[in-house]
Amino acid sequence: MEVATTTDVQAVQQAASAIRETVGRVIAGKGEAIALAVTALFAESHLLIEDVPGVGKTMLARAIARAIDARASRIQFTPDLLPSDITGVSVFNQHTREFEFKPGGIFANIVIADEINRASPKTQSALLEAMAERRVSADGITHPLPRPFVVVATQNPIEMEGTYPLPEAQRDRFGLRIDMGYPSHQDEVAMLDHHGESEPLGAISPVIDAAGVVACIAAARRVFVHHAVKDYLVAIVHRTRSAGDLRLGASPRASLQLLRVAKAQAAIGGRLYVTPDDIQALAVPTLAHRVLLSHEGHLSRRDVTEVIRGIVADVPVPQRRA
Questions:
Q1: pLDDT, tens digit, 9 for 90 and up, residues 68-88
Q2: What pLDDT is recorded for position 159?
Q3: Which residues pair with 93 in a beta bridge?
Q4: 301 in the Ramachandran plot: left (φ > 0), alpha (ψ -120 to 50) or beta?
């Protein structure tokens, strides 16, 4: 198996730094959220951004798309949005007397699914095949999606008016989930200074193209992972399936996604190998949105983030051999 070289990870590190710096010009004080978004991009994992309205979810998604010289599309999810609006539709051509497939908004490198939980579950499910297999089937014909292909979805908390909870199968397709949170006092004042007079996204220019992102994804996947680290990763995921505070544990897909984002984070950090620290740092954003609290968990007033952190703290860390 081919492994990553120092040149590979240096290229990933430089590209990640350029994207973070560019996006950071319009998203102040959210370095951790931006870093996780870049990690998801270089792992080619779909990203779910969840928080209350007005904290910059869509701005972050649009800034990431602007920083890449690739095809981007934005789909505004509403209750009347149809599955065909996302995947595409076959239209009869009067001249050729044949049906022609007209691609929908999903046919892009970066797809911004804005307020995804405002559409009906039927429409949400239109993304399932595309997100899992990077293809769309219509009228018996399979249409491949371009590379890279990353869905960056935003959603409001389910307590908000007019929202539909994402089905478990849909949430499991997202590699990472992040919260934006409110900005600090200083960052909000800076936002008024910088965003009050002009369109902030207008200052963003692409720093990498689609081919460059694909190369970074390939390099990240060649990062070495020791068997002991893989065993540690799986032990954490398995523990979610037996935890008393959870009634739904993480799936095998979660293990694979955690491995991929850990590799991407290692490459972004300039390392040729994954460490247990990478697994620990990414466990919550990778696993928390995939699990469900049990009745006991609700009674104890714990949230899934606390449960995942507790599991990570309980699983023995592999020791480095001399």
A1: 999 999 999 988 898 888 998
A2: 59
A3: 98
A4: left
Q: Does residue 54 have a pLDDT over 80?
A: no
Q: pTM of the full predicted structure?
A: 0.90
Q: Which fold has domain 224-322?
A: Helicase, Ruva Protein; domain 3 (1.10.8)
* Interval 260-284: pLDDT, tens: 999 999 999 999 999 999 999 999 9
Give burial (CB, 10 Å; 0-12/13-18/19+) of 195.
middle
* DSSP, residue by residue, 250-301: --HHHHHHHHHHHHHHHHHTT-SB--HHHHHHHHHHHHGGG-EE-HHHHHTT
SS3 assignment for 101-164: EEECCCCCCEEEEECHHHCCHHHHHHHHHHHHHCEEEECCEEEECCCCCEEEEEECCCCCCCCC
Q: Which residues contact 178 (CB under 8 A, 6 or more apart)?
A: 33, 36, 37, 47, 48, 49, 50, 285
Question: What's the pLDDT band for 321 if we cut at 50, 70, 90?
Answer: low
The upper half-sphere exposure of residue 210, i.e. CA atoms within 13 Å in the direction of its Cβ, equals 11
Rounded CA-CA distance 62/136 in Å is 24
Q: Tell me which of 30 and 320 has the higher pLDDT.
A: 30
Amino acid identity, position 83: P
Domain spans, the chain: 224-322
Pairing of strands 208-209, 68-69: parallel
Is residue 94 a contact partner of residue 52, using CB atoms and an 8 Å limit?
no
φ, ψ (nearest 5 deg) of residue 184: -70, 170
Whether the per-residue pLDDT at 322 is higher than 60: the answer is no
- Please answer whether residues 119 and 78 qualify as being in contact, where contact means their C-beta atoms are separated by less than 8 angstroms: yes
Strands 150-155 and 46-50 turn out to be parallel
Q: Tokens in use for 160?
A: 């908000």
> What's the angle, vertex CA 35, arms to CA 32 and CA 41, rounded to 5?
145
